[in-house]
Amino acid sequence: MKDQKEVEEYLATIRKTITQSENLISEAELRIAETDRFLAAQGLTREQVLNLKLSGEQRRLVDEELKRRGLPGLDENEATGDSSPVYSDAPSWGAPDTQGDLDNRRRKFGTMMQQFRM
User: DSSP class of residue 23?
Assistant: First the structure.
């Protein structure tokens, strides 16, 4: 009987996690829609913003405004005045470069998920 109770508690935890995940996804979707509406009001699309390139002077002005609002500055090479895109198509977490990286990530993920195995 104790095993059944443990399983029910475990399943309740999983259901709670799923509900929280669904709520986070809904919130993210709402923020994306809000951002799209804001961009549309400015006459922009996400693609245009992704391809945005700033000069050194523009980057400096953006950094000043971000700091004025209490936000961190751009992560780009502001010292060199690099005018590369502000956003990159590559994910910020980076893709695995080698098979060893991929194997290492799988191993770490497997270790992390062991507590959820039945």
Answer: H
Q: How many angstroms separate the CA atoms of 37 and 27, rounded?
A: 15
Residues 12-69 have pLDDT tens digits of 999 999 999 999 999 999 999 999 999 999 999 888 888 888 788 888 888 888 888 8
Note the Cα 101 to chain centre separation in Å: 20
85 by DSSP, 3-state: which? strand
- DSSP string over 45-90: -HHHHHT-B--HHHHHHHHHHHHHTT----SS-GGGT--SBSS-SS
CB 83 within 8 A of CB 56: yes
The pTM assigned to this predicted structure is 0.45
Chain segment 2-16, per-residue pLDDT in tens: 789 999 999 999 999
What separation in angstroms does the CA of 23 have from each of 10, 20, 36, 63, 117?
20, 5, 20, 33, 24
Task: Give the number of residues written for the chain.
Answer: 118
